[in-house]
Write a structure and sequence with these properties.
Layout: H1 3-31, H2 42-48, E1 52-56, E2 61-67, E3 71-76, H3 81-96, E4 102-105, H4 111-114, H5 118-131, H6 134-144, H7 153-163, H8 167-177, H9 183-190, H10 194-202, E5 210-212, E6 221-225, E7 229-232, E8 237-238, E9 243-249, E10 252-257, E11 261-266, E12 273-279, E13 285-286
Parallel strand pairs: 1-3, 5-7, 6-12
Antiparallel strand pairs: 1-13, 2-3, 2-4, 7-10, 8-11, 9-10, 11-12
Helix pairs in contact: 1-5, 3-5, 7-8, 8-9
Amino acid sequence: MTNKTTYFNMKRETQTLAQEAMYKSIEVRRQTGFDLKSPICIYGLCDQLNVKVRFVDINSMEGMYYKEEKPLILLSALRPFPRRTFTCDHELGHHIFRHGLKVDELIEDSEKSKAFNPDEFLVNSLAGFLLMPTLGVRKAFVDRGWNVACATPIQIFTIACNFGVGYETLINHMTYAIKMLDRIQASSLFKVKPKIIRQQILGYSSSEPLIIADEHWSIPTIDAEVGSQLLLPKTAETANQNITFQVEHPNGRLFRANRPGIVRVYCPDTNWAVFVRVSRHQFVGLSQYRHLEEPENE
């Protein structure tokens, strides 16, 4: 078999798997009551599907799925916050497609990471379509009046925040899955790293995670962890001190997540309101307990 034949066979297989993943994402959203355009909380979706999620203090893996009496997903609490979201969706894909025990090790820049695995490609594709549905990504740009063809890194970063994914994850999905970016545009966007984007937005260098929730934020919750910074609309106010105001910003008000818990944030002059759910930094335990407030004597 020639290399050219192998290439076309591989391309046909990936197209078939991607289409299967897209249709399955639509089926899952409809079965669980989600529309086909809104962002979702992946941990809430796992709850609806009766799949438990536990964060663990293990740095040698991304995640793990197994099923004995009840299905369980294990996620490394040491991975970046948006990465945990995508990994959880990836592991949920193994459950949805009934793949059985799967351990996804932490693999960086190795030949093993480049090897094609149909099951892994299928669940990665499902994760992308579940978290970033085509209609939802298009709507996110339209609502903000932004042109995809000339999207800036800050615009991509903002929309990635709304879908709870990483900057590069959204670029990859828009390029290879839903074909909203061409490869030249994607390459240009990849050159600007999230650290530089945060510096451009804040006006100073910061290693702390940043979440942008503008007036077009389209779900009623924002998930963050202690230490995260949140750039919220210009008149945003908080109901308690789980997140505290830091500074006025040209594009909003900057807050910092200080302690675990849930706080309502609202704009008195509009109908904009969300619940910010703050977890401990690198929280270890079952996902449904990640927002429990710490005792006063801690």
